[in-house]
Amino acid sequence: MRVTFCGTRGSTPASGPEFVRYGGHTSCVALAHDGQPPSLVLDAGSGLRRVSTLLGGEAFSGSLLLGHLHLDHVQGLGFFGAADHGRVDVYIPAQDDPVVVLGRIIGPPIFPLTPDELRGNWSFHGLEPGRHSIEGWSVLALDIPHGGGRTFGYRISDGSLTIAYLSDHSPVQLGAGPDGLGEYHPAALSLAEAVDLLIHDAQHRAEEFPAKAFLGHSAAEYAYGLAARAGARRLALFHHDPGRTDEQIDATVADLAGGTLDVFAAAENQSVDLCATPELACQG
């Protein structure tokens, strides 16, 4: 399984020399079966444009799985060039007609085209919680707290390898938890249990969390705690604050490193190859 981070920023894109290494595009992660082009894309932030680059001019044929519908997770839909002559099945957490719901964001006067006017062969579907088969991937969707609309976390497997994706997660909405950073609640633990890679919201640091918890995100320290409790093998810190510089993200990783858990900060254009071997992660 190849996991490629096409956008790792949260809330809004960021630009400038201090954001070069981890990137400025918003949330988008491409998944590919071994030796194949990406067929499942998680979220459609501005990083969706990078999926077209991955395909090298070829058309996309696959599905977009949206965790929720905030602007930073859908703003790439109208700029997905690889879809112009391809097939795209879009799945959103079930809530009314998905074309109508997405049309509140992608459509006049905010955007010139409505979802059903996008070039290519697009279809839109509401996804209920539970287990699904999408593009040859096994997908478990569960409701997780975030605020401002229904939000899913996902557990995705190819039959041998498994990742969890909780890009926007506000566990403090369910209680303070043991460290004041939020509850390690059943849905989060179920999604992350023994995964080969946990991709998790790390927008805040613990020391700033009390002043920012209302924004609906997690502290990096919570992500680490969840990974450790769930037995995840690797943790990718994700959804970086738009003001968090490369050096500050480096410092976050350094503060969390040194234990038994392999932790890194997801960087735009970074690919991680997961292998069903004792090493679990291949070079690539």
Largest sheet: 8 strands, mixed
Strand order of the largest sheet: 6-5-4-3-2-1-14-15
Helical fraction equals 10-25%
* Structural class by sheet pairing and helices: alpha/beta
Global morphology: globular
Distance between the termini: 11 Å
Radius of gyration: 17 Å
Q: Could you list the spans in which at least 5 consecutive residues all have pLDDT below 50?
A: none
Mean pLDDT: 95
Describe the structure.
Strands 6-5-4-3-2-1-14-15 form an 8-stranded mixed β-sheet. It has a 7-stranded mixed β-sheet with strand order 7-8-9-10-11-12-13, covered by helices on one side. The chain has helices spanning 48-54, 98-103, 186-192, 209-212, 220-230, 246-256, and strands at residues 2-7, 28-32, 40-42, 61-65, 87-93, 121-127, 130-134, 137-143, 152-157, 162-166, 197-201, 234-238, 262-265, 270-274, 281-282. 48% of the residues are buried. It contains 6 helices and 15 strands. The N and C termini lie close together (11 Å). It is 16% helix and 27% strand. Helix 3 packs across helix 5. It is globular and about 50 Å long. Strand 9 and strand 10 form a beta hairpin. By secondary structure, the protein is α/β, with parallel strands linked by helices. The model has no long low-confidence stretch (mean pLDDT 95).
Secondary-structure blueprint:
Layout: E1 2-7, E2 28-32, E3 40-42, H1 48-54, E4 61-65, E5 87-93, H2 98-103, E6 121-127, E7 130-134, E8 137-143, E9 152-157, E10 162-166, H3 186-192, E11 197-201, H4 209-212, H5 220-230, E12 234-238, H6 246-256, E13 262-265, E14 270-274, E15 281-282
Parallel strand pairs: 3-4, 4-5, 5-6, 10-11, 11-12, 12-13
Antiparallel strand pairs: 1-2, 1-14, 2-3, 7-8, 8-9, 9-10, 14-15
